[in-house]
Structures are given as C-alpha cells and as structure tokens.
Amino acid sequence: MAWFTPTPLEISAIEQIETAYVDATLTEDERQDLMAQMWVKLERAHGSRVLSLVSPEGDVIERPLQTDY
Fold this sequence. Notes:
By secondary structure, the protein is mainly α. The protein has helices spanning 8-22, 28-46, and strands spanning 52-54, 60-62. The chain has a two-stranded antiparallel ribbon. It is globular and about 30 Å long.
C-alpha cells in the first residue's frame, strides 16, 4: 500500500467516494455508478490507478472499475 499527500481535487473525489459508499439512500446500482464516476475523477487527478482507499472508519474501498477509462 502506498501513501501519498492528496491534492484538494483528490481529496474532493475521495470524500465523494466515501459518501457514496455509506449512503443508505442509494440503490446498489446507483452506488456503484457514482463510485465509478468519482473513481475516474480521482485517478485522473492522481495521474495513475488507485486500487483501494481506506475510509476513516477503517473500511477498505476497492476500485470499482473493471477496465481503464
């Protein structure tokens, strides 16, 4: 696992992914679609693939994308 200092754009995408991950008002399909959209933004801002995130609660959120963008 690699650690990095995220930019404000990366932080925004990470927070949106974490919010979608725990949002009980979303269906599973809506959650996956939203997380995939935000993950693309995160990877573009980061400049490379991000395989997983660790939420503040300690949950490991895996990369939802099956293919490259």
